[in-house]
Automatic annotation (TrEMBL):
The gene is folC. Residues 286-409 form the Mur ligase C-terminal domain. This is Dihydrofolate synthase/folylpolyglutamate synthase. Gene3D superfamilies: Mur ligase, C-terminal domain (3.90.190.20), Mur-like, catalytic domain (3.40.1190.10). The keyword Cell cycle does not apply. Keywords: ATP-binding, Folate biosynthesis, Ligase, Magnesium, Metal-binding, Nucleotide-binding. It comes from the Bacteria.
């Protein structure tokens, strides 16, 4: 077993320890984290628990609910993953990233409580986030599921409101290879007779079955609430004769709509006008985020076909006058062919790069996966890194062109480090 960091250790030293503590990166199950949780918390935290799961759209949904609740004067904590630049991004206290000192203190407390229990990196960090929320007097805990739902570490706490943003194919090695199996895992965050939201069309049968078995009041997109457009093209969330105008944004509208439905349940006295104002302040790093102009350069963390289809629609809506250049790098367990097929209609030139991280896909394998899908419809080039691919794309792009960098949180993190400003 690795030795725990000494007093005065840095966040990076603690993270290195967490990475070495458990034999595998992903080890789904609640037994370990429950055991340590009971040592840290004698009962359920005195807070409102909002758990957000789903294949895509979780980050935007969390950020929108967080902003809405903060605008009500609530004390709000948000726990998300993964991070882009610094681990501290994963824990936000009243809208601010947690400090190094507070984070180290929480790590030390979890280490003291776990004794001989082996925790994964994510489990350890989740318990630390719970402690940080408790010690800061947080009233609303917004918890983003890391993987799946039923056996994810955040699911050790019973949700007062559960949100499933969408269900599609991803992480099939752990969750199953069809929507019903994956939906069953996602629906594990539902709780008996508690409210829940499903934020997409066509929920898998397994989600509906779980909701019925748990006697959950399930607010479904398209039924309990929906999106409409007026004659001017303004988009509105409509629910039970009540509506909110969405601000102009590049964020996923269905994620914002799910957040609106959530706030109707959590804070029913909040006015449509106040909701609109709060939503205008929502920002999500890495979600169709523009880093440069002329040529425009966007980054997006989308990494599966469902997310790629949304990204394709966003690019199509830009009505780019020139060409679209894609910088793409991904993890080895992703549906590369499905992602590329979803994006092929809007991409003129591909710049492929490897990811030098665990499970990162090497350049030769990436090229072999992409070329048969692209065929002769677009140019495919290879680069030694994401930074090199971006540089190559910028060299050939005209001022009316567009560059989109996507494929993984790791891809976006490299891009944000490589692009000036």
């Amino acid at each position: 077993m690795p030795r725990a960091p000494e007093p005065g250790a840095t966040v990076d030293q603690w993270l290195a320890y967490l990475e070495a503590l458990h034999p595998t990166e992903i080890d789904l199950g609640l037994d370990r984290v429950l055991l340590v949780l009971r040592r840290l918390f004698p009962g359920k935290p005195e807070a409102r628990i909002i758990t957000v799961g789903g294949t895509n759209g979780k980050g935007t949904t969390v950020a929108a609910i967080e902003r809405l609740l903060l605008s009500r004067g609530r004390k709000v904590g948000a726990y998300t993953s993964p991070h882009l630049q610094r681990y501290n991004e994963r824990v936000r206290l009243n809208g601010e990233d947690v400090s190094d000192a507070a984070l180290v203190g929480a790590f030390e407390a979890v280490e003291a409580a776990r004794r001989d229990v082996s925790l994964t990196y994510f489990e350890f960090g989740t318990l630390a986030a719970f402690l940080l929320f408790r010690d800061a007097g947080i009233e609303d805990w917004i918890l983003e599921v890391g993987l799946g739902g039923r056996l994810d570490a955040v699911n050790v706490l019973d949700a007062d409101l559960a949100i499933i943003t969408s269900v599609d194919l991803d992480h099939t090695a752990w969750l199953g290879d069809d929507r019903d199996q994956i939906g069953f895992e996602k629906a594990g965050i539902l709780r008996y007779r508690q409210n829940a939201i499903y934020g997409d069309e066509d929920p898998p049968r397994s989600v509906l079955q779980q909701a019925a078995a748990q006697k959950v009041r399930l607010y479904r997109f398209g039924e309990a609430y929906r999106l409409e457009s007026d004659d001017s093209g303004l988009r509105r969330v409509v629910t039970a004769g009540w509506q909110v105008a969405l601000p102009g944004t590049t964020l996923p509208e269905r994620s914002l709509a799910a957040a609106v439905q959530a706030i109707r349940l959590l804070e029913p006295e909040m006015s449509p006008e106040a909701i609109h104002r709060a939503l205008a302040d929502v920002r999500v790093a890495g979600r169709f985020e523009q880093l440069l102009s002329s040529p425009a350069l966007y980054v997006d963390v989308g990494h599966n076909p469902h997310a790629a289809r949304w990204l394709r629609e966003r690019i199509a809506a830009l009505s780019v006058r020139g060409k679209v250049h894609a910088v793409y790098a991904c993890l080895s367990d992703k549906d590369t062919a499905g992602v590329v097929a979803a994006m092929a209609a809007v991409v003129d030139r591909w710049f492929l790069a490897p990811l030098d991280v665990p499970r990162g896909l090497d350049i030769d394998t990436l090229v072999r996966r992409v070329e048969p899908v692209v065929g002769d419809k677009a140019v495919v080039e290879r680069a030694g890194s994401v930074a090199e691919a971006i540089e190559a794309a910028r060299e050939v792009a005209g001022e009316n062109d567009c560059i989109i960098v996507f494929g993984s949180f790791f891809t976006v993190a490299e891009a944000r480090s490589a692009v000036p400003g």
